[in-house]
Amino acid sequence: MKKINYKLQITNYKLILLLSIITFFFFTSIDLPVTASDKWGGVDESVVEKYAEEHGRAPLDPLINTDQGDLLLFMFLIGGIIAGFAAGYYWRTLTESGSKISECCTAKEKTDGFS
Q: What's the CA gap between 80 and 72, in Å, rounded?
């Protein structure tokens, strides 16, 4: 009887799946030229400005214009730094299960004489 190596078969399937996913993303990420008529308008352009003009109000410029330069990228960078700091500061609280935290509190209470 011939012995089949299942680990080798599973590895081959994983390799084929990985190569097909990479190929799919490579061919779907090719940039096609976009003209102004192909571009879709956002909600602000298609809905909000339309109703504002109907009621006699002109659209206003945004308070913080993120369309210029890398301001939007900078805003996301600052948000990521703040979120990363908060997640790092509270890492133990986020990753420990509730039972470890409650055991810690009950053990402390027992040593303090509260039980």
A: 12
Ordered by start, the domain boundaries in the chain are 68-115
What secondary structure, in 3-state letters, does 19-49 show?
HHHHHHHHHHCCCCCCCCCCCCCCHHHHHHH
pTM of the model: 0.38
The dihedral formed by the CA atoms of 66, 72, 78 and 81, expressed in degrees to the nearest 10? 160
Q: Quick count: other Cβ atoms within 10 Å of Cβ 49?
A: 16
Torsion, Cα of 19, 23, 29, 33 (10° steps): 170
| DSSP sequence for 101-114 | HHHHHHHHHHHHT-
Report CA-CA distances (Å) from 22 to 27, 36, 41, 56: 9, 31, 31, 52
Nearest one of 66, 28, 24 to 44, comparing CA atoms:
66
Encode pLDDT of 16-75 as tens digits: 888 899 888 888 777 766 665 556 667 777 787 788 888 888 877 778 787 778 888 998
- Is the per-residue pLDDT at 78 higher than 90? yes
